[in-house]
Specification:
The protein is α+β, with helices and mostly antiparallel strands and 97 residues long. The protein contains 3 helices and 4 strands, in the order βαββαβα. It has a domain of 63 residues: Alpha-Beta Plaits (2-Layer Sandwich), CATH 3.30.70.930. Helices cover 37% and strands 28% of the residues. This is Thiamine-binding protein domain-containing protein.
């Protein structure tokens, strides 16, 4: 079982004040390619895995945004770390239909 949930919202600065959604799509692509369990929500994406692995994914997300042309990125990150195990499903099961 995973020991960490990490939610991230990337806020990339865009050249000439353009649309940030294509940059966010690039960040989500990094998550998709990582193979970790994740859920995209309206304002953030939650990943499930091991802490060190998830932090490396955050780093790769930033690298991908810079490569895509973003001159700077702010990320808001929330981490729930439980060495005994944690999962999105367990935390949200009572809210699901």
């Amino acid at each position: 079982m995973a020991n960490t949930l990490l939610s991230i919202q990337v806020i990339p600065r865009t050249p000439d004040g353009g649309d940030s959604i294509p940059y966010v799509d690039e960040a989500i692509k990094v998550i998709q390619e990582s193979g970790v369990k994740y859920e995209v929500h309206a304002l953030e994406t939650t990943l499930e895995g091991e802490l060190s692995e998830l932090l490396k994914i955050v780093e790769r997300m930033h690298e991908a945004l810079v490569k895509a042309g973003s001159p700077s990125i702010i990320s808001q990150v929330k981490i729930a770390h439980h060495p005994s195990g944690i999962s999105m499903d367990k935390l949200t099961e009572k809210y699901r239909p």
